[in-house]
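hey m, so remember when u said the tokens were messed up on ur end? i reran from scratch. heres the input so u can diff it against urs
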Amino acid sequence: MPEAFPKLRHEIDAAPIGGEGESHFIIYDRSGIAPTRLLASPLALLVASRLDGASSALEIADLLAEETGNAAFTASEVESIVDALREALFIDNARFHDYRDQADRDFRTAGARPPGSAGSAYPEGGSELAADLDRMLADAPPPEEAADPGGAHPRGVVVPHIDFMRGAPGYGQLYKYLSGLERPRSVVVLGTAHLPITQRFSLCEKDFETPLGTVRVDPEACARIRGALAGISDPDADLLAHRGEHSIELQAVWLRHIYGDAVRIAPVLAGSLGEFIETSDVRGAAEDPVVKAFADALAELVEEGGVMLMASADLSHVGPRFGDDRAISHSFLAEVEEADREYLAAAAYSAVAGLESLAKRRDRYHVCGSAPIFAMGQSLPGARGRLLGYHQAATPELRQAVTYASMSFA
């Protein structure tokens, strides 16, 4: 039975299509659980935004008709929009919970993780994808700070996880640099969990399928991580978060491209450190028992040799699209760059210093990759970072900008 007071799931988001003044939007599930994307009118978007679980369709229709003077807001019209959202699994109800639980069971028993971002963040076809990646390598800008001429792979790296088209300079710089160095035996990929997870870290002991071939998991590295967290955290609790998360997948594609089948990965999602940043309790993050145990385990893996850490992390997310009241402008982006570079310079010296830089501004510019960067930094005591490149992907027509950087740590 349809719920009397429908509630939109908190993972549901919307993005405008085209430039300013465009009259339609795409409504989608940021968690990747619901596979459908809906083309929505401004009318439908207004209705969706009012589905708080405390208002009926009639109450929403009356409220919106009064606020906008639009007689199109009738209970029947609202119900029709809710029906479409319900069918797309965007409403928080028993039908969605059943679907999610089945999806969790299916993913846990699946042999490998399928490439969820193929066809959106990068091409589905292997030959087209490989050609795109080769172009990024060929067109990569020179590093801002001189790179080592060759030799051993770095102990750690930072790489963007924005889509390949917008992130091409950063991906090209990092992976061109790695291509000229010794190949690691294994890479611990620390992905950004874009949605809340219940644990600090979530481990995925599954091979990652890509259009270029499968990237196999490193059972030894995963076992060491699991052992370190035993009794203090459940690395399996948030496994479903890996199904729709792109931050590890995009690196799996690149690692397969430059290393072929010769490298293994340990895929780990890092949860938000927002509570420490907002309260300026940076020492609390460093002293968190789960963070300490995790970092100690990674430090041992790196010290033993053959293992590289990789923080898959974008930086600032700014503009009205991300809740700012300022439009994208040259002066705003210059301000963001100053803050980003201060953060990167601090994180290059120590993980704690990097987090202190964000806490000083209460993370005003919404840096999304601070958790994997912090976890990697805590795992590499004494390491110093070198900035290969800093970039901004601004799309003013979508009222947003995302920044990112590539770094190496030795």
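this time it looks ok to me. Residues 12-103 form a domain with the Arc Repressor Mutant, subunit A fold (CATH 1.10.10). if urs says something different then somethings off w ur setup not the seq
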